[in-house]
Design brief:
mainly alpha, two-stranded antiparallel sheet, 6 helices, 2 strands
């Protein structure tokens, strides 16, 4: 009678990606753990240092933080001038619009996961919003200054795009 041995997956994560396509799930898990530990750790350290959480959140701060998070995440993920920081984890593809570039993550494992994080403004937004949130606890005046600056930058970008569009229509 022939032996009917079944090969079990080496890990619960095996088999998630199609054959030949790497999805670095263990590295994603590590990055998620680093984010969570850093965020919680910063809040615990702030509490131990005597900082208290705000009683309420002003709409102005939420709007400025949202705009600043959008702008800073795009600067980190797409700006051609910040490519030096992404270069160890990405490969240049092409210029993409207004001072932005398209890049693809490279490598495998953690390098690939970091590359995917660094080219994704949506993914980076969580990290940046987390940093601003901690900033609102430990250094609210500086954080408001920075969020106002990057919000002004985002508004200026929108004005530049609107002006360019108006010029093309005339």
């Amino acid at each position: 009678m022939p032996s009917t041995t079944r090969q079990l997956p080496r890990s619960p994560l095996d088999g998630y990606a199609p054959p030949g396509e790497e999805r670095p799930l263990a590295s994603y898990s590590l990055l998620t753990s680093v984010f969570s530990a850093s965020f919680v750790g910063a809040l615990v350290a702030a509490h131990r240092a005597g900082y208290t959480l705000p009683q309420e959140h002003r709409v102005k701060d939420i709007v400025l933080t949202g705009l600043a998070t959008h702008k800073l995440s795009r600067l980190v993920a797409r700006d051609k001038v910040t490519a030096f920081a992404r270069a160890p984890f990405t490969r240049f593809q092409e210029a993409a619009g207004h001072a932005e570039v398209d890049e693809e993550p490279r490598g495998g494992g953690l390098r690939l996961a970091v590359g995917e994080l660094l080219v994704c403004p949506y993914c980076l937004a969580q990290w940046i919003a987390g940093a601003f949130t901690v900033g609102h606890v430990v250094a609210p005046r500086v954080t408001r200054l920075l969020t106002a600056m990057w919000s002004a930058h985002a508004i200026a970008d929108a004005a530049q795009l609107a002006y360019s569009a108006a010029e093309k229509r005339s």
